[in-house]
Amino acid sequence: MKGDRLHPGTEAELAEMLRAASTPLTIRGGGTRALGAASGVVLETAGLNGIPLYEPGALTLVVRAGTSLAVVEATLATERQRLAFEVPDLRALLGRDGASTIGGVVADNASGPRRVQAGACRDSLIGIRMVDGRGTAIKNGGRVMKNVTGYDLVKLMAGSRGSLGVLSEVSFKLQAMPEAEATLRITGLRPDVALSVLRRALASPFDVSGAAHLDVGRTVADAETLVRVEGLAGSVAYRATELTRILGDGDLVEGPASAALWAGIRDVAPFAAMSGAVWRLSVIPASALAVPAALAAAGIAHRTIWDWGGGRLWLLAGPDAAAAIGAAVTGIGHATLVRPVAGQGDVGSLPPEAAAVAALTRGLRAAFDPRGIFDPHRPPA
After folding, report:
1. Is the four-CA dihedral 64, 44, 41, 162 of positive or negative sign?
2. pTM of the predicted model, to two decimals?
């Protein structure tokens, strides 16, 4: 321990530190995703690093939780493989530096535009090792996809944000990099028309791997509607042509230029240089227009990025938008403040958890962390 920071280098050291802990801890990976500053004693996971197993032929990776995401991606790239769920890099948006860790990615269930095709982080996660609040090391899952009985800790830990335990190792099923990619870009559509286009694209047989609409300019003419396909070059060319036929004329952006478009959506890049609070919303896609409409009706200025065909919204708005957003998402989804403005604290999830869900959450935390050493108000990075 150095000052008020703990630096385990092995799972055994991590377990010993957790057993000895007498005050709440803040779990920290690379510090790239957390909201707010760390409080109390910080337990840093970067010492839990390395790749014990990589089997390219089996599309399987086992990696220690403190390993940087950059190292993981570079290792997979040597075999033309990747994590399927397209991890967002929010450092520019949040004004952070540091290196994201793979454990932080899992703890946040960080998932990008390809979720519409490949699922979220938790859907590629096939095994975990963790240490709970008692200091007990636990293993769940393995190196192949399979059904489980009892607690499915693999899925439970994805998105738990450090409230149930500290990840020490994670295992993934991987995806081969595609030979080609192309994006149909249509400009000048109103949001309602654009979301209808995205729904048609996702309902088509053409295996769309990205469906987004950016309404971040000053006029409708600046708006962009984007639909991506990936795979073998011949298949991509055919599917892109067919999507143009059924969705309408637009520009076809291919290769690295297409990848750059989606990196910008993945990382919420349009909002990085804009002032204002940034909210992340998960909603029923058919209701995706409700929140921006509520803000417009209340006279609250805002900008919007729709991803996942309308299921994921990124909103840029002022500090006065929280009440309107909370009211608008009730019954259709939830909202999380990702980047507050100066003086605006973490407002938590909107709307608050239902009583039954909150009781279940308390029960899980009591089971995995009976001493309350994991600070539930400070998400990991």
Report:
1. negative
2. 0.91
